[in-house]
Amino acid sequence: MISWAWNVAGIVFFVNFVVGILFIFSTMENFSFCSPTEFIFGRGSQEQVGLALASRRATMVMIVYGSDRIRHTGLLDQIESSLTAAGVRFIEYGGIQPNPTAESVYNALPIARDNKVDFILAVGGGSPIDAAKAIALGTLYPGDFWDFYSGKEQPQFALPVGVVLTIPAAGSEGSGNSVITNEETHQKISVRYPNVLRPRFAIMNPELTMTLPWDQTAYGIVDMMAHIFERYFSNTPGTDLVDSYAEAILRNVMDQAYTLRHDPDDYDARANVMWAGTLAHNGICGVGKVEDWSSHRLEHEISAFYHVAHGAGLAVVIPAWMTFCAAKNPDKLWKFAVNVMEVDPTGKEHKEVIDEGISELINFYHDLGLTTRLSELIGETPDIEKMVASLHRNMGDTLGNYVPLSMDDCREIYRLADLPTEE
Amino acid sequence: MISWAWNVAGIVFFVNFVVGILFIFSTMENFSFCSPTEFIFGRGSQEQVGLALASRRATMVMIVYGSDRIRHTGLLDQIESSLTAAGVRFIEYGGIQPNPTAESVYNALPIARDNKVDFILAVGGGSPIDAAKAIALGTLYPGDFWDFYSGKEQPQFALPVGVVLTIPAAGSEGSGNSVITNEETHQKISVRYPNVLRPRFAIMNPELTMTLPWDQTAYGIVDMMAHIFERYFSNTPGTDLVDSYAEAILRNVMDQAYTLRHDPDDYDARANVMWAGTLAHNGICGVGKVEDWSSHRLEHEISAFYHVAHGAGLAVVIPAWMTFCAAKNPDKLWKFAVNVMEVDPTGKEHKEVIDEGISELINFYHDLGLTTRLSELIGETPDIEKMVASLHRNMGDTLGNYVPLSMDDCREIYRLADLPTEE
To answer: What is the pTM of this model?
Structure first.
């Protein structure tokens, strides 16, 4: 009898010991963080672009941009005058579309090589910046640049990239990320090579964003918030500091969004949103955490097949993803509801608080003028099976970390994303 | 009568016009922000120091440190083994005191030059890091290194500096700042040269801070919070985003402090405090704002004359500075009371809220075991006139921005800092 009791005590001790050891090491993750980009921020800052390039010894610059809007607003002229005054030569490469394609990169590479381009300057938002990064990777590489996106190769170097930002959203001006769509293969692939792809400088004049149409402003706000969500929703314990400033940035972006909805020319609101977009994606909100990029991956299939704006797709995916995760891993969603959506939890069930938080987020998206229903967004009944098959091909059997998602789970999230929502 | 009315209308219109113009341009300040330091963070990270140096082509390193504590804990051995394994040679330069002196810099310079040192590695907290930066400035300069502190010269270059951080407080591991005390002249001078002085890398292992005596932990917490205060208390409008993440960091540091008071070995609390110390001073909490360094300047006189720890001096100065400013510029102090000290403003007068916020901060300092009374800190009646005279000599006629302080105001703040406080 005594020996039996001792055995039990021994087992209990052993289990406690193992749990204790696991607990001790269950802490914030080790990390390395380096954000070497120089952010040159404020009114008139685009006039410094020539100096920013010349001081980095650029001699021949490829200016990568999207539509001719920057020509009509006079921005391109201002930039080119600044380069000329600083003695920096340049060529233009315009026409980059939203969700930039591999084709646009392939077309740029011989031009960059023939002109001995030694610096890429992106002017615009995430699309020209991501294309500029791909061109920077491809110019010095004798093989197929897509190798760096397909995972076949890891880059050791790239041409330096600078940015004049006109659409705050993607956070690409401060990140080492690039997302390129291969239309042949229906793949939208995101890579992260911070050591070679972080821009050397980013010129950020909030005034340049005042003429943005409202929908682009709204998509940008949804996108930058999503960049924080993908880092915030994590099972890594002990990261309260990062979580608390991430929550502060999220709350502030929503405040600025309401200001801009009524006064798109509010300089400070534009400036705060612009800086928030950078902080949302330069990595500072993810230090020490295992991140989760499921919502982005789920969205990439939507924009790859239906050619909708990334931010518009995220407004559809995120509430569905949250609703799905609420049943499986509720704790951080509760914290989100209380600390970000400012739901008062007094006297409420855990689940009630979370549901209210998700509803508040949906209301916020609706207040921005966005739909949160997939079929309404794409204007047809979504082919969920096609998206799941493509997701499976691109990402394998599971997705994400906060709740690891099987392909069945992803199918369910797309289904939830197409339910009508009540306010 | 009509013409008189029109004249008034004209004047009113003109005044409105001018005020309107001022208002339009009264926004966030332009800024340039670049934090190129690589932060290598987490358990065991000191083992990467050799690689961090070798990959930056260091061949002969001067290891600058303070007391022999790092020798006794085995840290110095670990670092030197890592350097040897990476093929990096080194010499030691220890004995840097708290509030590092110009003399310790002068003594190091011929050694650095004779040994052809090409990289300075600081091991410890703010004092060795600030001394390392001064040595980095002085080694390549044929003149007197103090020229860069007295304001006679602006540096164009310096040797590269790396850091192994063991005391989170000064934030010097991520800043371009250095504070050196000239004992001959009783001057404690702070300089900011981000382009040349920001460390190339900072190795931050929270475990190394677990053996810190409590008072050093507490001083560090006071110091990092002060670095945020000096940026937070600003009259620059439109900086809500920065303010909200600054508030989040302040609240979190106080939470972690209470955890560490009871459990100094809590890894995550140590990790959060360590990262907060970096964010508090790498500039990210000050972007777009006119800063105010009055409290630091007022404290520098105390530690220069009475040889007390900088953090201990700040705990005395800050509540007095706040009390003085409350009457002249209350708005941000109200925001601080509500958003940082979490005072419930319901049904309270503006002044009552502010007073409660300051009291809560004083209570927090007392909970850390610190005094907030000057004579108790220095163990004698303070010679306020001597400090004011020195302040005047170092800083001129006025100090700071949030409330510009005359020397009479500074005298009054020192007087307030010596009043007994009630809890």
So the answer is: 0.93
